[in-house]
């Protein structure tokens, strides 16, 4: 009986859960789903690690209607094919993608010596620092916004951060390309500026996050800070004071990024009007869950199957989602009291007094957050889309729901 080699291309990602299989073409985003027994059996064989997505099929198998249809669909989308096995003496070789990232946590934890040197610092990309923040403004996002995204908060106005400790942390990182986000009012920023020498931290980049209403009228103060990116939070785009302030700051030649906090369809429309009116180009819409806008999230934030299909994901993204959570990995938060977190929804993992390497090692070992993988959580663990969906974020934690989708 005639035999064939049947293969699925190495750029096709295969996800199989119980009675469903998903094939995703990482080159063009084409997504195919099958749930018949015959196809599932073939996929199980293809997925066996020693098979490298290539198996032998005999003529009678190929003639089975379901298998025949499956092969034909794959051929049509350039995702797989078969050829006469008599054309090759040996089984063809296919190399499947594998991501070797320096922060492959399992590898590092098995080789702790690797971690003792500076390698461990390579796992750190970003530190968000909350300085003391006295504020006379009243925003409805103040109580919870900072837990969901980078945002100022009155909770952090009780004490100043210990600048000696902070500088000690900076010096430990001075040769690392770490992004430092600073949140605080202009007084706290000035305290930093008084000590800051750009030559000491040439690898670091600094961003200041501030509410639009707390931007000082005297921009010269901020110009002292070399290479400072300014991120401006706008919680109420219909507020006249906010519009006036925006007009004022847009006149200045600064690297400004605007974060519009969106809680409803109305706030989305108001933000869009303002962006259009003031010709704002660098902006982000940041949804905020306020406890009573679940319906807004359902219609505007939750992903549908179509959204997932339309959002192209590379093989590299899939492999990264398999190992780490890019929303959290490499990111630490330091509060004005010196506590270190990976998210305000998780327990504290250290203190500014600790050696920063020991804090990173603790997170890598205990995994409070950096490796919060969708595939470990219900219901996503049983969903074939779990490496295609964006990783779990603080929004899921605020909503106490792991799947922000309309699929399961
Ligand atoms: S400006 Fe920031 S700190 Fe002040 S009330 Fe608004 S959110 Fe809170
Ligand atoms: S959010 Fe979870 S359940 Fe929803 S599609 Fe993604 S992986 Fe599946």
Topology at a glance:
Blueprint: E1 3-8, E2 12-17, E3 20-25, E4 31-34, H1 37-47, E5 54-58, H2 59-63, H3 65-76, E6 80-84, H4 105-110, H5 112-116, E7 126-130, H6 145-148, H7 163-172, E8 179-183, H8 186-195, E9 205-211, H9 220-223, E10 228-234, H10 240-250, E11 256-262, H11 265-277, E12 283-287, H12 294-300, H13 305-310, H14 315-323, E13 331-334, E14 339-341, E15 350-351, H15 356-366, H16 394-399
Bound molecules: iron/sulfur cluster (2 copies).
Order of strands side by side in the largest beta sheet? 12-11-10-9-8-7-13-14-15
Any idea how many domains? 2
State the helical fraction.
25-40%
Our estimate of the beta-strand percent is 15-25%
Give me the CATH architecture of the largest domain, please: Alpha-Beta Barrel
CATH class of the largest domain: Alpha Beta
Number of strands: 15
Low-confidence residue ranges: none
Q: Write the CATH fold name of the largest domain.
A: TIM Barrel
In whole angstroms, the N-to-C terminal distance is: 44 Å
Ligands in the model, by name, code or SMILES, are: iron/sulfur cluster
Structural class: alpha/beta
**CATH level-4 homologous superfamily of the largest domain:** Aldolase class I
The biggest sheet amounts to: 9 strands, mixed
Shape: elongated
Task: Sum up the structure in keywords.
TIM Barrel, nine-stranded mixed sheet, alpha/beta, binds iron/sulfur cluster, three-stranded antiparallel sheet, 408 residues
Describe this structure in words.
With 408 residues, this protein is α/β, with parallel strands linked by helices. The chain has 2 domains: 3-87; 105-399, TIM Barrel, CATH 3.20.20. The chain is built from 16 helices and 15 strands. It has helices at residues 37-47, 59-63, 65-76, 105-110, 112-116, 145-148, 163-172, 186-195, 220-223, 240-250, 265-277, 294-300, 305-310, 315-323, 356-366, 394-399, and strands at residues 3-8, 12-17, 20-25, 31-34, 54-58, 80-84, 126-130, 179-183, 205-211, 228-234, 256-262, 283-287, 331-334, 339-341, 350-351. Strand 14 and strand 15 (350-351) form a beta hairpin. The longest helix has 13 residues, at 265-277. The protein is elongated, with a radius of gyration of 26 Å. The two termini are 44 Å apart. The mean pLDDT is 90. One iron/sulfur cluster is lined by residues 374, 379-380, 383, 385-386, 389, 403, 405, 407-408.
